[in-house]
Every structure is written in structure tokens, then in C-alpha cells.
Amino acid sequence: MSLPLPDSDALAASHALQRQIAAEIAGNGGAIPFSRFMELALYAPALGYYSGGAAKLGQAGDFTTAPEMSGLFGATLARVAAAIIAQSAPHILEFGAGTGKLARDVLTALGAAGVTLARYDILELSGELRQRQQEALKDFPQVRWLDALPDAFSGVVLANEVLDAMPVQLVRKASDGWRELLVTVEGGAFALIAGAPDTALEARVAQQIPDAALLEPGYTTELHPAGCAFMASLARMLGAGKGAAILLDYGFPAHEYYLDQRVGGTLMCHYRHHAHPEPFYLPGLQDITAHVDFTAMALAAQDAGAEVLAYMNQAAFLLGAGLGELMAALDPADALAYLPQANAVQKLVSPAEMGELFKVLVVGHGVQLPDALVRADRSHRL
To answer: Which CATH class name applies to 66-166+225-260+289-377?
Structure first.
């Protein structure tokens, strides 16, 4: 692969993480689940992609998220947040707040609308991003950083591109059933091997993958136990109060996720604005993601007591929440200000860009969404 080379310090950190992973493999009988490899690559203390110090977002990082494209994204989310806050509590909890731009845009829009927010909590695993957030949000005294999920919460939960970064279980269909893929060391390099037959795995596959029996041997895909556990915790947290969680990410409902032509799954890596499929490339220096199975996420939340309030593509959510009105309020005569916003909005809502691939799942307890979002709901497609 023709990818930019890291500097010597970054390369040394990746080598240290590789040695740590290899030692765990050796201590575990020669193999670990891919989900454990992904967990270490992303979250190993001081060395993982999200727990280390490398820049992740923006031109100097590996990818750009919707809040970085336009302040209108956060301002639109603020309109939905205000409606939920009016029915619950003046609190927002954001997972994985990136550079802090979404928080700043939401707080600014709520303030302009006269909505008083008592607290804006951020749960951030990346030390580098937490520092950037603290600088970006130093003028907002209601912001505080948490180290763990609270037991109970009332208000609004925001999670933009959080679920896709949770470790996934890789599985492959063999001629006699499904196997979990494990990571081993062969010739000094990480490699995938198939695990032994597992009746519990067969049961999970049957539950999550529609028509799994019809897929051909060799079909490789992902299961999402970490994401499902997160959704269950979120549902229990909200069930102790009143509020809703808004989760935005790229993915599909199960009947689109596990299409027979998607034979290699959805696992993807991001390094310096290059996307590629090699998860063993420079562990700790690249993001590893998988598309979200929104059916599994919705069912996990529902089984834990939350109500599925809405599911739709990002375009329908943003337009139903009032993005068009916010755009119409801008002056097109001011081309220097207007055109970048228009271009960003086009990327956010176009079916050829983020408008269709990105979906929005809203789960909650004791609140209702604005009528425009209720009308746009497509949760029957889950």
C-alpha cells in the first residue's frame, strides 16, 4: 500500500503495541479473538489509537466528521435536543466528542435559542482529544468530563460516529458452520485463522444474520457484541430517568448489512485520509471501524427497556430537524460565507455523500420527538 510513512516516535509506539499484542497472543495459547485485537489496537492504555496521542481529526489527522464540515450540523442537532430537554432535564451527555466542535456548536445554538443548559458532560477515551476539547470549550463552564457512564441520566445523549469504533467479532462461514476469526502470529506478522466450532457462536449468528443458512462458505462479516452491550447500558441509564439518545453513524439495517454480495464484510481502516482494508497495518496509528448493524443496536436497546423512537437516514433526520430553515437564514449574497456552508450541507444530505450511508437511531424513555421526525421515521425497516 502507498500510504504516508509515520515519524520515528509514532513508529516506535506502534512497534511497542505490536509487541504487547504479540505477548498476549503467546500467553493465550497462540491466538486471540479479532475483537480483542481491535480493542487493543484502538484502546490499549497510552498506545492504542484512541488512547494514545496521535492527532485523529481534521487535515492533520485521519478522517473528518460531520461536525467539522459545518456548524449547521450541531445547530440542527441543538433543535432536537431543545425539544427533548423541554420534556426531561437540561443535561446533555456526549460520547466521543472529537475536537469539541459539536459540543461548541450545540451549546452556542442552545444559548442563542434561550435554552439554559445546566450540564454538558463528555465521556472521552482519547487523552489527545480530551485536551483539544478542553481548549475548545474553555468558555463554557457547564462542560465537564466523565470517566465512566453514569448509572442514571435524564436529558439528551449524543453519539456521533461512536458505534463504528467499537470492537467487532469477525466471523466466517465454513462448509460445516460458522467460525470466529482469531489473530495469531505467523512469520513475525499478525494473521487471521479460524477458530473451533462453537454452538454459542452459531446461536448468535442465527439471531443476528438474516438467512445466514443461505450464505455461501467463505462469507466473512461482523457481529457486534460490544455495540449491543453499549446500547443495553445506554437503555438502562435512560430508563432510570427521562430522555433520548441520538446515535449517528454509517451502517445498515440487518437485511441490507448481510447481503450475499457483501462477502468480505465492512471492516475498514483510516490512516491519513486514506481508507484501506488492512487491520494489521501499524496498529495504534490507524482507525479500525466497521459499519453498524442498526437492527442489532435497536433490538439491544429495546430488550433493555428503551423505546425505539426513530430510525432514518441522515438526510431525512437533518432536514426534518430544520437544517433547511437554518440554511435559508444565511445570506446567499455573501458568497464567501454562504458557498462553503452550501457545499457542506450538500455533503451532509446528498444520497451520493453522507445523506444515505449515514443513519440516525433515536432510543429513549418518557419523551417524544418533534412531529417532523416522527413523520420521517423508518424504524419499520429495521
So the answer is: alpha beta
